[in-house]
Structure formats: structure tokens, C-alpha cells
Amino acid sequence: MEWCFPYIFIFTFLSAIYVFFKWKLSFWERRDVPTLPPSIPFGNVKGVGQTHHMKDLIDKVYRAFKDKSPIAGAYFAVSPVLIITDLDLAKNILIKDFNYFIDRPIYCNEDDDPLSGHMFALKGEKWRNIRSKLTPTFTSGKMKFMFPTIVDVADKFSESLKSAVKTDGVLEMKDWLARYTTDVIGRCAFGIECSSLEDPKVKFREMGQKAFDDPRHSQFVESIIWQFPNLCRTMGIKVVRDDVTEFFMGIVRDTLAYREENDIHRNDFMDLLIELQKSEGKLTVEEIAAQVYLFFIAGFETSSTTLSYALYELALNEDVQNKAREEINAVLEKHNGQLTYEAMKEMHYIDQIISETLRLYPPVVAIFRQTTENYKVHNTKFVIEKDISVFIPAYSIQRDEEYFENPEIFDPGRFSPEAMKARHPMTFLSFGDGPRNCIGLRFGRMQSSIGLITLLHNFRIKKCSKTVIPMKFSNSKGILSSEGGLYLEVEGL
Known about the structure:
Distance between the termini: 88 Å
Structural class: alpha+beta
Number of helices: 18
Largest sheet: 4 strands, mixed
Number of strands: 9
Strand content: 5-15%
Shape: globular
């Protein structure tokens, strides 16, 4: 009978694993929350990152239950997550009842991985403290001060493109736009000339590409980290590449030392962090580096993808492009041909184009929150328990025909003051909302506006034989990014 023992052990072990998965994957069923049927061991995320994007899973859940329940469940492997399908509930989570949803389910390990301790990932009081200290950086006054710097980079961008189109009018604009935003962030955050427009292989551009295109871990490992953050912190698991950390820590240390030794003040993002360090003595070099790193990776990638999608839609909608150019020329004529901060603010149609681009292509497809204590959903039997990850599906809401007629059509008129006033405020969530919305939204919109104005004033954008229609998205990236390059014909005016 001894020969039976190994088989009994294996059978018992496999049975225990099966029971574990069945129990974990019945979490929502036991709470009467509607959900799509999960599968062992993937839950509902089988194929995500390979055959389809995370937005497709969230959209499937949203559309299956939006008319039946204000919430719906899903499983990321064995971890339960909640999809919000009701706009009023979304508003309560982001604004009215924000104190229940202060945190994001984002991993950070400040001790072993200092750049991961940035404001996007920090929790509780630590987040509140950093947020309150950094908010003055992004006031309209600060934006106005940074405006000429961005215009200078945009002018260099235009000159570089003029040289490029003399050789070939068909350009891969996704990379060009990333180089533009890299140079903008380098100047405004670090006070450094990155010069990636002149040389696409400069270190700043290389590190930005590595941070997004060549992450430290595979999606499988990242999912394990997401599900077991406390264990991973205990094990000292890092998420930022060592070479990226070494580069940014070095840049920050050198910049701090240089400015202090030479008493240099630039009134940029780094300056405010230095002043906070001096006046309150509570920001370490590592904390400063983490915030600057966030400003860099968030600022260059999201704005460059937004500009990419804007140019794509303008190439397909010539009437919209012509109307935008007419507004640009008319406003610049009033301002003696100079792109000033006041001139930009008068270009309302440009602003509507950017909003409509963000509606169709939100860089972050869902707003993430995590409960800090049990939360009773108003006028329902549901209770969202502590530490549950909550997703508000921005991509799905912004392409919902209930809120936007013919939602796949690009129509900047949707963001006229009258149209916006007639819609629920939660129908546009590309920057989030409430106390934990995107702190850099003014900066992001400004650098996108300046880039778009400069391009349309100097060039005509057209589709070409290499333009992929309809747009295809990369399944492997967390943010909403096009698959491959974005080829467009660029013609000087």
C-alpha cells in the first residue's frame, strides 16, 4: 500500500488548490454582486496583454451590467476587483465620499525602490502631504511662467520637422512627438536641454523608452506583485529598472548640487521641490527624485500619445483640421503673429480638439481607487469592503452611446460649453476627478495645445498609404497606445 501514498498526497494537494481557487473565485457570488464567469487560474484576465487589452475586459463587464447594477465584479487572477457602472456612484467615489477611497491599488516600495515612492502610488497621509506641497507647482500662474519655455521647444520641433520633410514627407509621428514632450519635460522639470529632437538616441529619451517599453518585469510577475504587495515589499521586490533608477537619481543629485553651489533659481518643478526641502526639511533626495521621475514619465508619454491621436484624427477629418487652422491664424493675427499664453487661451476650438481626443483615447483607460474602510453603496444592499480595488471605466463611459451620440465619430463640438453643461460631469474622466485627480492636467493640456498649434500653423497633416486605419492598440501596454508607429504625411505650409 505504500505505493499509494504519493498519489494520495498529490490528489489531496491538487484538490486543496482547486478548492482554494473555487473559494477565491466565488467572492462576488457570495456577496450577490453580478460578475462574468471566471476561469481557473486566470479569473477574467485570460488573454489580457496578449490577445486583447485590459480596456476590453473592463468594457465587457461594464456593458454587460450597466443597466442592471451600479457595480459589477471581476477577477484579476484570484483578486476581486469592482467595476463601477453608475455615474452618480462614480461621482460619490471620486468626490463626495472620497475619504473612503483615498488610495490607489498601486505598488510602491520606497525603501528598496525609491523611484516607486511617487505621488501616483503613495497612500494615506503620506500622499496628502506630498500632494498639498506640490499643488502650488501647477497653478495657472506657474503655467504662464513655463509657457515661453514650451513655445521655444515647440519652435525647435517645427524647425526639425521642416528639415525632415525635405527628405521624406511621410514621417513616423509617434516618435517625433515623444521627442518633443521629452524635451519639454526635461526643460520644465530639470532645467536641462535634453535635445532629443536633434538626437533621438540621447540618454533622456533612452530612459523614457525603457521605463515604458522595456519594464523590469513581465506582465505575469507584475500581476503577482499587484496581488501580493505586502509580501513583495517584505521580499524587497522592485518595479523600476536599476539603470533607470541610477540615471534619474544621478540627474537629481547633480542638479541639486549644481543649483545650490551656484545659487541658481529657475522657478521650475525642481525649484519648488528644493524650496520644500529647505523650508520644511521633510523631503529627502529620494522623495524629490520620485516626484520628478513621475513628472517625467507621466508628462512625456501621456501628452505625446494624446498628440499622436489628435494628429491621426485631424488627418482623417480634413474639415476639422481646416477649422482649427483658421482659428489659429485668426488669433495669431490679433496677437501680432506671436503665440502668447493669452493667445492660446483664446483658441477654444483647439481646446475642444484636445478634449475630444482624450474622450476617444484616454491614456489611462480606468480610474483606480482602493477602499480604506467598508463603504455602503447609497440606496442599495451592497457594501464595498475594505481594501477592495475599484475601477471606474473611463474608456467605456466616454465611448458610451447613451452619453455621446455616435461615440466613435470624432467631433470636437461635443465640448462646446453648451454641450458640456448638458452632460453628467462624470462622462469625461481622462484626468480623473476629485481631490486625487491628475495634478498635472493644466501642464499636460498646455504642452499638448502648444504642440498642436505649432504643428497646424506650419504644416498640413494627411493620411498616407502607411497610415493604419482603423487605429490598432497595443495589447501589451498599460496605457492606451497605438500598435507600432503612426505614419502620416506632413506637408509644409
